[in-house]
Design brief:
The complex is a heterotrimer of chains A (296), B (373) and C (299).
Chain A: H1 2-35, E1 36-37, E2 48-49, H2 52-59, H3 61-93, H4 99-107, H5 114-125, H6 134-141, H7 154-182, H8 186-194, H9 199-227, H10 231-237, H11 241-244, H12 249-257, H13 265-293
Antiparallel strand pairs in A: 1-2
Helix pairs in contact in A: 1-13, 2-13, 3-7, 3-9, 3-12, 5-10, 7-9, 9-13, 12-13
Chain B: E1 3-12, E2 23-33, E3 38-42, H1 49-57, E4 64-69, E5 72-73, E6 84-87, H2 99-104, H3 118-131, H4 147-159, E7 165-169, H5 177-194, E8 197-202, H6 205-211, E9 214-219, E10 222-227, H7 229-234, H8 239-244, E11 251-258, E12 261-264, E13 267-271, E14 289-295, E15 300-302, E16 308-318, E17 321-327, E18 336-341, E19 352-357, E20 362-366
Parallel strand pairs in B: 3-8, 3-9, 6-7, 7-8
Antiparallel strand pairs in B: 1-2, 1-4, 4-5, 9-10, 11-12, 11-14, 12-13, 14-20, 15-19, 16-17, 16-19, 17-18
Helix pairs in contact in B: 3-4
Chain C: H1 12-55, H2 59-64, H3 78-86, H4 89-120, H5 126-136, H6 141-154, H7 161-165, H8 172-183, H9 187-195, H10 200-211, H11 213-229, H12 232-237, H13 246-256, H14 263-283, H15 285-295
The chains are: A mainly alpha (296), B alpha+beta (373), C mainly alpha (299).
Chain lengths: 296, 373, 299
């Protein structure tokens, strides 16, 4: 028996070592960092402990801007992408010919490098001295005046940002929702049809309740994902997000850690903990709401 | 409502795409279902009976042929406009709705002048629930009900909109044996009370025989026989129907008809009916006409001087009846099973037992066409 | 309920009308559906089309187009040449390949062992350890990346493959996924193997791994996608171009790549970087989609 005990741990050993060093220890460490005031990489010393790091971060205009950007992205992209994904999935599940082809196409963005395709979006939306860009051409066509979506006004940048985010997150949501729709038994629809149920009533009374667990799952993961937005922003606006005014909370953490503005692990830690607190709170609220709304 | 099917055919493209030929689920079905009767569509799985039901409900459209409700051609009318109630094999109750909401669901679809108030819906739902005796469970969710109760909810939901036709797909197959007996009485009662033309699909011949006014026996998309259950049992049109109806199944022997006698092996067991012999010019006239001889289990009478002798295998006493299990070289299958009322049982002991047979329980089938002679 | 039906029996004419209305509805519905789906598909495909198209235009032609053209009459491969010569694209590619392969392989070993430990071995404290594992699933990467950055820096592993790879070798989620899968393999097989004197490790390799192959393939594919697209950690840990991965390479190209605004060359690089995953996807389409719906997160 004794040998068995020892053996079981042996199988877990690699995982435990890696998780210990790169997950558990950092977790404790990040909390310590966040309370150490004036810590410097060079001296490896701090001047004291306290809440100063949090205060600093919360009063930093860059952080406030990042917070605002993140919330705007979350509030716009989560409902828009979930709703659009639901529409597309519903359309997909009510056709037969070409369904596979459409599914394959819609899934493509999932397997592309977001930084690479971000460049394409940038090219499409950017105004240069040579050309106004593809999208502005369309705007001209409808009689509007051109806008620089990449270096122009805030709303324009935010628009591209949200558009790109939706483009990136749609495949996952469409995939989940089409398989959720497919798992609703055909008999329910047949029963409803024989009873002469209107399509809208079928949707609200049968389809929606049946796939509601999956929708809530998507909303929750969508919120978490959108709060952690970062690399999509880099793809469109470059690494200096602060000066582009398009930084996000995660971007702020990294900027505090590294790069031209970096070298402040304490501030980064405090910001990361604030982010975590926000995500955690929102997820809890989401879970509470979904408990009340999902009936079976 | 009277329902008429005319040359109804349904072909599906084969699922295996390599096979170009279509699957024929229903082939040239023509029959009439009289108003207010309970009809059983009977056949082994994959015989096209469910497809037939779907064609009648309108969930599927036929490749060829017409369907009439009364005198009206409804072939291309969508299901919601046909006024049919459909009960699914697994009931298809909406899991997130209460029993009442499930039953009232079809009523919520009515619009315009037919639109009902909340109270009217409640009343109608309660009425339907009372009919199937589940009016005390109205607030439950489907997963809090037993299988039998779920089935009743499904029937109530189908009845609540007062359909002109009630269709049931394998209504009893998801119930345990005891509930099945009980529910089939229940079905028969509900049908009699409402007088709605009811068609149900089943693979269980006993179920179909026990409650149907009329049964339709199908195999591979083709109708083999239509008639009152007892008639079909007593006068099967062919070997398949004879084999499919009755438990234990009919015992089939290879035999022949010669000189006005029915032979199994060398033993003439019975006088052959008129016209059973082969036509005179038939080449095989000398050796007799080759036939299958089917004998119902209850058609055997133990008789020491009987013409049919079999090798005794074992005797199973089942209370009221006794079953004699035996073997015979000309028998198709493994063991012959006969059912004898226990009080008629004379002394039977091995190794051979002799029987005579009841003429009405013996059926002759042509060896090639398998049609009844 | 009445003996007779309440619905007044429709006449033949009524039925005729119902038929026509139903048919018309079906046609309108299909036209709307397909229009919508095609528009969405175009929105998805357009960026891909544009990047491929632009990558075949000459720089001169591209810059001369004040109104961008949807086609090119003089396709050129020049941009691809530039992409591979002006920046070390091949190097980025190779780095990413090495990084992806080693990380994925190492992770598979670690998680297979751990999942087996949780699924089949019995030892005191197993449940406690497993609960701790599960609670780690809630910890976002962003929280621990700060210290990991400090750790790797203090180990002098910046700009090394070890530094890139080490923190990504475990995944609590995949261990969980695999453990669930292992537990579905009947315990009897394990007992039978024990009776035959098979060692635990041999049993794992000969029985568990082959049976769980579908899940293992799924996890591998997901991890490969994740590695190929990883950006944040490599960016923190590498500033030497010799260790850039494709994502960082693209970012570098964007910031100070092919000289001023050589967009076609940039697009050529983007095409080159996107192609491997798209091919992987088209080959393993069903596997990937099934895997992502079971264990993917993104969005």
């Amino acid at each position: 028996m004794k040998q068995k005990n020892y053996k079981g741990w042996l199988y877990l050993l690699p995982a435990i070592i890696f998780l210990g060093v790169f997950m558990v220890y950092p977790l404790i460490d990040v909390i310590i960092y966040s309370f150490e005031e004036g810590y410097s990489f060079v001296t490896q010393k701090s001047t004291g402990t306290g809440l100063y790091n949090f205060q600093y971060v919360l009063h930093d205009t860059y952080f406030v801007q990042a917070l605002r950007n993140t919330f705007i992205i979350v509030i716009i992209t989560v409902p828009v992408s979930t709703g659009l994904a639901l529409l597309i999935s519903l359309a997909l599940s009510s056709i037969k010919p070409l369904r596979n082809a459409f599914q394959t196409i819609y899934f493509l963005p999932y397997v592309t490098n977001t930084l690479a395709v971000g460049l394409v979006f940038m090219v499409l939306f950017k105004k240069t001295e040579y050309t106004d860009g593809m999208v502005n051409l369309l705007i001209h066509l409808f009689g509007g005046s051109s806008v620089d979506f990449i270096d122009g006004p805030y709303w324009a940048k935010m628009f591209v940002m949200c558009l790109y985010t939706v483009w990136i997150v749609l495949p996952f949501k469409i995939l989940i929702l089409t398989s959720a729709l497919a798992s609703v038994k055909e008999d329910y629809y047949k029963a409803a049809r024989v009873d002469g149920t209107r399509p809208s009533r079928i949707f609200y009374k049968i389809t929606l309740p049946m796939i509601s667990p999956m929708i809530f799952y998507l909303v929750i993961t969508g919120f978490i994902g959108a709060f952690k937005a970062y690399s999509d922003e880099v793809a469109l606006f470059g690494t200096d997000l602060n000066s582009a005014g398009m930084n996000t909370m995660v971007g702020y953490v990294y900027d505090m850690l590294y790069g031209n503005s970096g070298g402040y692990p304490s501030f980064a830690s405090a910001a990361a903990l604030i982010l975590f607190a926000v995500v955690f709170t929102i997820t809890c609220i989401n879970l509470m709401v979904s408990k009340n709304k999902i009936h079976y | 409502m009277k329902i008429t099917l005319e040359h109804l055919t349904k072909r599906f493209p084969n699922r295996n795409k390599k096979i170009k030929e279509d699957v024929i689920a229903a082939s040239d079905l023509t029959f009439e279902i009289p108003d207010g009767k309970l009809i059983g569509l009977l056949g082994p799985s994959g015989c096209g009976k469910s497809t037939t039901l779907n064609l009648i409900s309108g969930l599927e459209t036929p490749t060829e042929g017409r369907i009439y409700f009364g005198d009206n051609d409804v072939t291309d009318v969508p299901p919601e406009n046909r006024g049919v109630g459909l009960v699914f094999q697994n009931y298809a109750l909406y899991p997130h709705l209460t029993v009442e909401d499930n039953i009232a669901f079809p009523l919520g679809n009515l619009r315009g002048k037919d639109k009902l108030t909340k109270e009217q819906m409640h009343e109608r739902a309660l009425e339907a629930a009372k009919l199937v005796q589940i009016d005390t469970l109205m607030e439950r969710k489907p997963n809090e009900l037993s299988g039998g109760q779920q089935q009743r909810v499904a029937i109530a939901r189908a009845l609540v909109k007062m359909p002109s036709v009630l269709l049931l797909d394998e209504p009893l197959s998801n119930l345990d044996a005891r509930l099945r007996l009980q529910t089939r009485e229940e079905l028969s009662r509900i049908q009699h009370e409402t007088g709605i033309t009811t068609i149900f699909v089943t693979h269980d011949q006993e179920e179909a025989m026990s409650i149907s006014d009329m049964i339709v026996v199908m195999k591979e998309g083709v109708i083999h026989q239509i008639g009152k259950p007892q008639e079909v049992y007593d006068h099967p049109d062919n070997l398949f129907v004879a084999k499919f109806l009755g438990t234990p199944p009919i015992n089939v022997f290879e035999g022949s008809v010669k000189d006005g006698k029915v032979y199994i092996g060398d033993e003439a067991i019975l006088d052959a009916p008129e016209g059973a012999s082969a036509p005179a010019d038939n080449a095989s006239a000398a050796s007799g006409r080759k036939v299958y001889v089917g004998i119902r289990p209850e058609g055997f009478i133990p008789d020491k001087n009987g013409p049919l002798s079999v090798t005794l295998n074992k005797i199973e006493v089942m209370g009221r009846d006794t079953s004699i299990v035996a073997e015979h070289p000309a028998f198709i299958g493994t063991t012959i099973r006969s059912i004898i009322p226990s009080e008629d049982l004379t002394d039977v002991s091995g190794p051979t037992v002799r029987f005579r047979v009841k003429p009405g329980k013996v059926h002759l089938f042509d060896r090639e066409t398998e049609k009844t002679i | 309920m009445d003996k007779q039906t309440i619905i007044t029996s429709p006449t033949a004419q009524d039925y005729r009308r119902m038929e026509i209305i139903a048919q018309r509805r079906r046609i309108i519905k299909n036209v709307l559906l397909y229009t919508f789906l095609v528009l969405c598909a175009l929105a998805v495909l357009f960026p891909f089309y544009w990047m491929i198209l632009t990558s075949f235009k000459t720089q001169g032609a591209y810059n001369a187009e004040e109104i961008p053209k949807f086609y090119t009459l003089a396709p050129t491969l020049q941009n691809y040449k530039v992409a591979f010569t002006a920046v070390p694209l091949a190097r980025y590619f190779l780095n990413t390949l090495v990084f992806t392969l080693i990380t994925t392989a190492a992770m598979m070993v670690v998680i297979v062992l751990a999942a087996f430990g949780f699924a089949r071995m019995n030892f005191p404290g197993k449940n406690l350890v497993f609960s701790l594992f599960l609670s780690l699933m809630m910890i976002p990467n962003e929280l621990v990346i700060i210290t990991n950055y400090v750790t790797i820096t203090s180990w002098n592993m910046r700009n090394t493959f070890a530094g890139l790879i080490l923190p990504s070798i475990t995944s609590v989620f995949y261990i969980y996924l695999l453990k669930e899968n292992f537990e579905q393999i009947p315990e009897e097989l394990y007992k039978a193997a024990k009776v035959d004197g098979t060692s635990d490790f041999k049993y794992l390799l000969r029985v568990m791994v082959p049976i769980s192959k579908p899940t293992l393939v799924t996890i591998t594919i997901l991890k490969v996608i994740e590695c190929w697209n990883s950006y944040v950690w490599p960016r923190l840990i590498t500033d030497d171009k010799n260790y850039y991965l494709v994502s960082n390479g693209i970012q570098e190209i964007r910031q100070n790549g092919f000289g001023r605004d050589n967009i076609p060359a940039m697009m050529a690089a983007v095409v080159v970087i996107s192609v491997p995953l798209v091919i992987l996807f088209l080959v393993f389409r069903n596997k990937i989609m099934e895997g992502v719906s079971r264990g993917g997160t993104k969005g």
